[in-house]
Amino acid sequence: MDFELTPEQREIQALARSFAEAEIEPHASAWDRDHALPVEVLRKLGALGLMGVCVPEEYAGAGADFLSYILVVEELSRADAGVGVTVAVHTSACTMPILQFGSDEQRDRFVPPLARGEGVGCFALTEPGAGSDAGALTTRATPVDGGWQVTGAKQWITNAAFGGTLLLFARTDEATKNGRGISAFILDSDQVEITRTEEKLGLNSSATNDIAIDSFVATDRLIGDEHHGFRIAMATLDGGRIGIAAQAVGIARAAYEVALAYSKQRIAFGHRIADFQAIQHKLANMSMEIDAARLLVHRAAWLKDKGHPHTEAGAKAKLFASEMARRQTAEAIQVLGGYGYTKEFPVERYYRDAKITEIYEGTSEIQRLVIARAILGEAHAARA
Ligand code: CAA
């Protein structure tokens, strides 16, 4: 067992950290307040290779492994969780499935612009009536000459407003009502209409949109086999959840670092509050839980890099890291007391940002279902 990062992994981590400290962290409060992220930031990330960290060099990526990408997501999320999810969805929920499941032609055509950050990737699965029960989606793809007419609506699509490429799921077999009979398609953003920008509790710098689709989609946009797209969605989420777990670790680490620094300079009852056991226990728990979450995240990433099954490990990493981030960002506010509840310090933002990690890319309840199916030997069974 080797816990040491390779020189290349450390180099990418350091690159992401220095960019995040210089170009993201100083603006994160303003982006949270303004509910916007300058698209220029994504272009700069692209120029540094951070929009395609684990994409092979032949497809214009940085050619690093999945763990390197995970390290990048933690660093970006520590600075601004909205940037973290933007890069995470772009990379592991759009670019990587096109690489993994696309034809040679699709890989050549769609991956390099994504890896360079010229367009931003989206994962269009969720609908108003299909969230946790993703197989209930009703967007339909009706066969027409040369392809399909895709009609329907998708909800809470991260990155849609940035423009780029969508991995979109639609029902190609109307006789089915569940995951069977769904196909995966690659769409350009001009094939969908943005119908709403969501107002959220946190993660305000990221774009979350509803979209409507009524477009012709040519045969060469089908990814994988017709009617078998749900497996692509599930396999994509297996990797994506590791990214969200890394995002949660990044948010928790940000909160811990602020709480730690504050505890060393805040004086109460004639002492630094770091000298009080009540505060020491909070800091010890934060440090321990962040370590534990990161170990789960890195194990899941390592399994994925080795080509081993990682459904269960990814679900465990996401479940633990997201609940840990919610708990520990709340504790950070507690360490800062009244100041923690104000906009003078960023911990209230970390708390708001952490909550979503328990919901998207599969709620904690769905992660428990996935883990339970795995340990009971019923993975991929029709019912939990
Ligand atoms: N890998 C590959 N295939 C898989 C799989 C996996 N991990 N899990 C299931 N499948 C396959 C099954 O083998 C089955 O295939 P066949 O039909 O060919 O037999 C098919 O998928 C259906 O599987 P299930 O019967 O298990 O499906 P289900 O409906 O009972 O439950 C579920 C599946 C786990 C509940 C799933 O619906 C799920 O994960 N729901 C949560 C959805 C989710 O995470 N949404 C996140 C939205 S994206 C997002 O949040 C992005 C963002 O913006 C941050």
Report a brief summary of the structure.
By secondary structure, this protein is of the alpha+beta class.
* SSE sequence, one letter per element: HHHHHHEEEEEEEEHEEHHHH
Number of domains: 3
Distance between the termini: 34 Å
Question: What is the CATH class of the largest domain?
Answer: Mainly Alpha
- Looking at CATH, the homologous superfamily of the largest domain is Butyryl-CoA Dehydrogenase, subunit A, domain 3
Structural class: alpha+beta
Bound compounds: acetoacetyl-coenzyme A
- Stated plainly, the CATH topology of the largest domain is called Butyryl-CoA Dehydrogenase, subunit A, domain 3
Uncertain stretches of 5 or more adjacent residues = none
Give me the number of helical elements.
Answer: 11
The gyration radius over C-alpha positions equals: 21 Å
Read across the widest sheet, the strand sequence of neighbours is 1-4-5-8
Secondary-structure arrangement, i.e. CATH architecture of the largest domain: Up-down Bundle
Largest sheet: 4 strands, mixed
Number of strands: 10
> Which overall shape is indicated by the principal axes computed on the Cα atoms?
globular
Task: Tell me the helix content.
Answer: 40-55%
Q: Average pLDDT across residues?
A: 97
Percentage beta strand: 15-25%
